[in-house]
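Records of this kind hold a single protein each, on a pair of labelled lines. Below, a sample record shows both lines together.
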Amino acid sequence: MKTEDDGLAFAASIAAECSSPVRLMILRLLLEEGESRVRIMAEQLGVGESTLSNHLKRLRDAGIVGVTRSGRTATYRLADPRVGEVVASLLGAAGLAPEYPALDADSGLAHARSCYDHLAGEVGVKLTRGLVDKRAIVVDGDVVDVGPNAEKCFARLGAGLTGLPAGRKRSFMCDDWSHGDKHLAGALGAMLLQGLISKRFVESVPGSRELAVTSAGEAIFAEFYTA
């Protein structure tokens, strides 16, 4: 079981690797645009493929990026949602807030998608507002705590409040770049999305971060949406 010390050590290792501007650029690119291949990243960052591959190997060996191989093609991604949290915090502290691609307001990604391991998009924003209004969560700035009605509300959405992993923020507010608002993130946000998927309120769209809301999901979300 991971402890708080494990989480701090992992965060420190991420920060240490970010001491290289090239590695920080790689992580920023994967944070902002999702998984990518060496050739594409090299072109976007203006770095030679050999140099980029060496930096990716170091990040992979540190457990900061993961790779999926299909034949001779290697696709890289952030290995853990905590990586995105740390990188976003570092960029924010430096006045370099992550920049995300614009989405059509009517697109499926803008409606509902996964953001690391939690729910984002219009559905994520509206559901978070509903959880606040129903006093399931209490928000103070970007810090979130469970409210008096948390157990009942999260159970209704298929998520329990026990078994939250150590070493991560229990819950916090994450910027939703498609709607200029915030949605629930952290370990609690991850458990919420897992619950929604297990109850088939949302379903993954193959090859995309888009989430399709089922008819059962529309019905349950309507209970939480506020005007």
Observations:
- The chain has a mean pLDDT of 83.
- The CA atoms of residues 18 and 24 lie 5 Å apart.
